[in-house]
Description:
There is one protein chain. By secondary structure, this protein is α/β, with parallel strands linked by helices. Helix content is 25%, strand content 23%. It is built from seven helices and eleven strands. The strands form two sheets. A six-stranded mixed sheet has the order 4-5-6-7-9-8, with helices on one face. A five-stranded mixed sheet has the order 3-2-1-10-11, with no helix packed on it. Helix 1 (4-14) runs parallel beside helix 6 (149-161). The radius of gyration is 18 Å and the shape is globular.
Amino acid sequence: IVPLCLAAVLSCSQAPVKSLGSPVRFAVISGTAPESPYTPYPADLSRLIAALNRENPAIVAHIGSIFYGGAAQGLREEDVTRQIAARPAFFDKLNPVCEYTAGELDRFGGTLELFENVTGKPAFHSFSYGPVFFLSIVSDDAGTASISKNQEERIARELERNADKAAIVILSYRPFFLKTEFAGYLTTVAGADRFHALFAKCRVRAVISAAGEIVSRTDRDGIAYINAGCVPMYKRDAYDRFRYHVIDITNDAVVVTGRKL
């Protein structure tokens, strides 16, 4: 019997390579939650929405912290639902399609149920834009920087099913790899080397994360591991730093450009 992940590797490696054709541009944002569960969304969030509308990427990937949940002491469900009720005033004005990847603050009561109610999709989900396949994963199962065995098997199946796509992009809150100088600043996914072997065989082009405010890129075996950290909008004294990132995927390259407001 061939193990599931190995079977996926064999299937992926046998799939024909397709051309991407025209470049695909998408944007990455993160950390749009309020500064605390008890404060409103920052008014300057409207500036971010306006900038994204001007940029007009194919997709906006929101990676982590759509509200302030997590394990804050004394946090009540009404503290989270109040935030959720205030979100549409900003995000209903966003023109590009927004896809969501769960982060550490997106849990309440130890689950992602409220997050999934807001986004209208399971936390683990996939979508395509033309010939590019995106897979959004939960990189902190049970609140730790780990991926469950069940989810690992689902990742392998999704990569196998979409091996014929021109490009595959993984969206993850936690980074898999960071530049050496950032070691210790952020927690990376447990078993990253094992997942890299699967990603490399299945011809993944990029793994995009957005934990913290660090911007890091590490390329391994043709895969761009990018942590596109963004400075939260509530930090009004940090306008000289990146608030979102634009990522262009072509047949030959993955190009990341940070944007300030």
